[in-house]
TrEMBL record:
It comes from Paenibacillus ihbetae. It comes from the Bacteria. InterPro entries: BrxD (IPR021228), P-loop_NTPase (IPR027417). This is Biotin carboxylase.
């Protein structure tokens, strides 16, 4: 335990989020277990994206299997590798398309959570633009030996800025995107905060009408439900042009598309998803990665899931030679199994030590007690299929808090009370207990 050296803010986030059963946004590297093939595959995607390619992945698994954890972990890896990232959870109010602005709502959420290595908590839009301008200024000052107050500096900077924006003009909606970036530069140069603010609002998708956009910025279009994804492709090109590796989008809770009751609306969302898939797979997008999390039902249900849309089903269905035992991890779908008993034990060990480190006490629970806790969880649920990592972790954190705050209580006492309060274990759980006995032997406990 003394070997742990984790900042207090990270242990606080880990303890609070694990207690609540939600995925922490920071410190995941301290509790990550398993998923090596999946992570390796996505890191390979990142290498391709950095070289100008694109990627699309559906990360599927049942509730509590670790989809959101993997998405968040990859998000953090991406920022460390100098990607711009953005994440959003889909909901009834946030979809890919909608008749009431649900697609635009998703774009706004992604832009709110736009993050970089130096701005990991979102809100990085203006910081990205300012860093871009400052980098150009610094480079020109060094190359041309100019002082900050030299009148020719702004002219040289402007030429560089327009060189980048001119490249954007050849892309769909690129002309207006470039015009707004130029408007931001002019506001920056002249100290015109209103003009800068107007440009930022437009880029965030917050300008409500074309009339207002024309009045404030001289552009005749706005970001809306129909075109928001086109602007995401522009952002990916722009971030790569100004020195980042590219843009990665992390979209979770895809099951909310499956839940859309209106079949026409649901199909429209699947059609948009198909467009995103085709763009990334066929080279129509550059420096862009799209990662979506969802349940197996969201993907495989042939009545309402993605497989109900033939064009998606034909692209996503497993190949002839793939199987659950011979996975390649290169298909568009990454299917997450539940963590193994060994991996869950390692996770509980990490949580035990982090809890003790955070609250400044020596860890008391032995590895044998951790396995006994897992056995109790399995007995309570009655089947391995029902045992989710999320539920195990929440119960374990509850146990740690109780033992810490009530020194008079013992592990055996709490586990015994919990067992008495639950129905007797099923036969299936008894059979699974043999696997846990094997685990005890394997760890020589």
């Amino acid at each position: 335990m003394n070997e742990l050296k984790i900042p207090k803010r990270l242990t606080t986030a880990l303890v609070n989020s694990m207690t609540a059963g939600v995925v922490p946004r920071v410190g995941l590297e301290y509790i990550a277990v398993g998923r090596k093939p999946e992570v390796k595959s996505i890191l390979r995607d990142m290498d391709n994206i950095a070289e100008g390619g694109a990627a699309f992945r559906l990360i599927t698994g049942r509730y509590g299997s670790g989809k959101s954890f993997l998405l968040q972990m990859i998000r953090n890896y991406a920022m460390d590798r100098d990607f711009v990232v953005a994440d959003a959870d889909l909901s009834p109010e946030r979809r890919l398309v909608g008749t009431k602005g649900q697609g635009l709502a998703t774009y706004r959420e992604l832009m709110t959570h736009l993050s970089t290595k130096t701005r990991p908590d979102g809100g990085a839009l203006e910081a990205i633009l300012q860093k871009w301008i400052a980098a150009i200024q610094q480079r020109i000052m060094v190359e041309a030996d100019l002082r900050p107050d030299d009148p020719t500096l702004n002219e040289r900077v402007e030429l560089d800025i327009f060189a980048v924006t001119n490249e954007m003009q050849n892309l769909v909606h690129g002309f207006d995107f470039a015009k707004v970036l130029a408007a931001y530069w002019n506001g920056y140069k002249l100290g015109d905060d209103d003009r800068k603010a107007a440009a930022l609002r437009w880029l965030r998708g917050e300008v409500p009408t074309k009339t207002e956009a024309r009045k404030e910025l001289g552009v005749g279009v706005i970001i809306d439900d129909d075109n928001w994804y086109d602007y995401m492709k522009l952002w990916s090109e722009f971030t790569a042009a100004i020195g980042y590796k590219g843009l990665l989008l992390f979209i979770d809770e895809g099951v909310n598309l499956y839940k859309i009751t209106n079949s026409i609306s649901r199909q429209s969302n699947y059609e948009k998803l198909l467009t995103m898939f085709n763009d990334t797979m066929q080279g129509k997008a550059q420096h862009l990665g799209i990662y979506m999390g969802g349940t197996p039902q969201f993907v495989e249900d042939e009545r309402r899931g993605l497989f109900s849309y033939d064009a998606l089903r034909s692209r996503l269905i497993d190949g002839r030679y793939g199987s659950s035992t011979l996975r390649t991890y290169t298909s568009p779908i990454l299917k997450l199994d539940m963590l193994s008993y060994e991996e869950i034990l390692i996770l509980l060990q990490k949580l035990r030590d982090i809890h003790a480190f955070h609250f400044k006490y020596e860890p008391q629970l032995t590895d044998e007690q951790l396995v006994a806790f897992m056995q109790a969880a399995l007995n309570r649920l009655g089947a391995e299929e029902l045992l989710t990592t999320r539920e195990v972790v929440r119960d374990f954190m509850d146990l740690l808090h109780t033992l810490h705050q009530h020194p008079e209580a013992t592990f055996e006492q709490l586990l015994g009370e919990r067992a008495e309060a639950q129905p007797a274990a099923s036969k299936g759980a008894d059979e699974q207990g043999d696997d846990l006995d094997d685990l005890l032997a394997e760890f020589e406990l």
